[in-house]
Amino acid sequence: MATEKEMYELIGRAVADAEFRKKLTANPEEAASEAGYTLTNEQLEALKSEDAKGITKVLEERFPKSLGIVI
Question: Which GO molecular function annotations are given, in alphabetical order (predicted)?
């Protein structure tokens, strides 16, 4: 089970790393495992939810490209 801190780390990595975000969106369990985290069924369902997909879309549309970070 990933702790709350670990979940924040996982999400933070997804925000900063476009390739990881794609993996996490496509297969949360595999991406989390590769990153060293074991997720509960509840955590996996949260990452698979439409809300999580919506957040990804918002990040891709609104992240300030002026910072030189491509999402």
Answer: catalytic activity; transition metal ion binding
Torsion sign, CA atoms 40, 42, 44, 46: negative
pLDDT in tens, the chain (71 residues): 899 999 989 988 988 888 898 899 899 999 999 999 999 999 998 888 878 777 777 666 666 554 555 54
pTM of the predicted protein model: 0.71
Three-state DSSP class for residue 17 = coil
Distances, alpha carbon 34 to alpha carbons 63, 68, 69, in Å: 26, 27, 23
Q: How is the chain split among helix, strand and coil, in percent rounded to 5?
A: 75, 0, 25
Measured at the CA of 7, the angle between CA 46 and CA 1, to 5 degrees, comes to: 80
Q: Which three-class secondary structure state does DSSP give residue 63?
A: coil
